[in-house]
Automatic annotation (TrEMBL):
Signal peptide: none annotated. Residues 25-220 form the SUN domain. The keyword Magnesium does not apply. It is found in: Nucleus inner membrane. Gene3D superfamilies: Galactose-binding domain-like. This is SUN domain-containing protein. The keyword Transmembrane applies. InterPro entries: SUN1-5, SUN_dom. Keywords: Membrane, Transmembrane, Transmembrane helix. It comes from Neotoma lepida (Desert woodrat). One of its GO terms (molecular function) is protein-membrane adaptor activity.
Length: 231
């Protein structure tokens, strides 16, 4: 019951496996990811009081929610057969992580309104959806959400070679803090990495903030998917 209440508070109703989680072995491909917003300019002030620091690493996007009412948080991890199961492990910082990725300024930021992040998945995945998350306007210290991403494109990537396959173009609406986007193109193949390429934000000329990126799909082909013949 408590977990349902927490989800209602967060507005988080996405109940799909997230293959972008760092805890299951996914990682950031820094070679194909924009630089983090400059540390010297990454602080926001109001009347000489520092409000927050934007200089967070991009792997912040891969953090998952931890239940503050339960120090033994659920984590998804691969077992010996490569299947994914849920187990319980103690959290050493559960009291300070409610929630770890939706508090103002606790985001990954890049300069301007154009940038990208590439996530290497722990194993190849047949992709179906992408979820982006931002803070609600009600807790924004600046009173607006102009640093939220707006228009973006998703690519599936192979490694190697670094082939990029267009999977869809979307627009994030900051009024909804968590939005899941069904991929417009779902080719009959699994991908080793996902690139999120942002081409605009909602008006901030200095930076764009991302709070969390989730990658959904399956490690086995969907039944309705017609696989490409093996060569």
């Amino acid at each position: 019951m408590a977990q349902k209440i927490i989800k209602m508070i967060q507005g988080d109703y996405i109940e799909k496996p997230d293959f972008a989680l760092k805890s299951i072995g996914a990682s950031i491909d820094f070679e194909h990811t924009s630089a983090t917003y400059n540390h010297n300019k990454a602080r926001s002030y109001w009347n000489w009081i520092r409000l927050w620091n934007y200089a967070q690493p991009p792997d912040l996007l891969q953090e998952s929610f931890q239940d503050p009412l339960n120090p033994y948080s659920s984590t998804t991890a691969p077992d010996q057969d490569g299947a994914y199961s849920v187990f319980k492990k103690p959290s050493t910082y559960w009291m300070s992580s409610f929630p770890p990725n939706v508090t103002p300024g606790n985001c990954w930021a890049f300069a301007g309104d154009r940038g990208q992040v590439t996530i290497r998945l722990a194993q190849k995945v047949y992709l179906s959806n992408i979820t982006l998350q931002h803070i609600p306007k009600t807790i924004s210290l600046s009173g607006n959400l102009d640093s939220a991403p707006k228009d973006f494109v998703i690519y599936g990537m192979e490694s190697p070679p670094r082939e990029e396959v267009f999977l869809g173009a979307f627009q994030f609406q900051p009024e909804s803090i968590i939005q899941m986007f069904p991929l417009q193109n779902q080719p009959p193949r699994a991908f080793a990495a996902v690139k999120v390429k942002i081409s605009s934000n909602w008006g901030n000329p200095r930076l764009t903030c991302l709070y969390r990126v989730r990658v959904h799909g399956s490690i086995t082909p969907p039944r309705e998917l017609k696989l490409e013949p093996l060569s």
